[in-house]
Amino acid sequence: GKCMAYTYRAKFIEISVGINHNVDELLVGILNQIRLKCRYLEDKAMKSSNSDTHHGHWYKSRSVMRATMKARQMLTSLLGKEDSKLKNCENLHTL
User: Fold this and answer.
1) Which has the closest alpha carbon to 93: 24, 34, 23?
2) How far is the C-alpha of 76 from the C-alpha of 71, rounded, in Å?
3) How far is CA 59 from CA 15, 52, 67, 68, in A?
4) Distance between CA atoms of 93 and 30, rounded to whole angstroms?
5) Which residue, of 15, 36, 59, 89, has the fewest CB within 10 Å?
6) How confident is the model at residue 85 (pLDDT cuts 50, 70, 90)?
7) In the record, what terms sit under GO molecular function (predicted)?
8) Tally of helices (H runs) and strands (E runs) in the chain
């Protein structure tokens, strides 16, 4: 789940409606994401006249990202360390 969320630049949170686990956090996080995205888009609109927004970097390709994430996931399981970028998928207070 986290790997897929990172690959598609989405957020990830595990919830259980039955025991009300993380349901409130999810709702607050959704509202937070909407507000952050609105602010981001407003800032981007202001800056768009001054800078070029097109970056055709090879490393932003989804297939390269997936391969990288698979390698990272394998190393993480071998070394026992959780990747900080995967933790960012769970942080609903950042974009």
Assistant:
1) 34
2) 8
3) 32, 19, 11, 10
4) 9
5) 59
6) low
7) calcium channel regulator activity; GTP binding
8) 4, 0
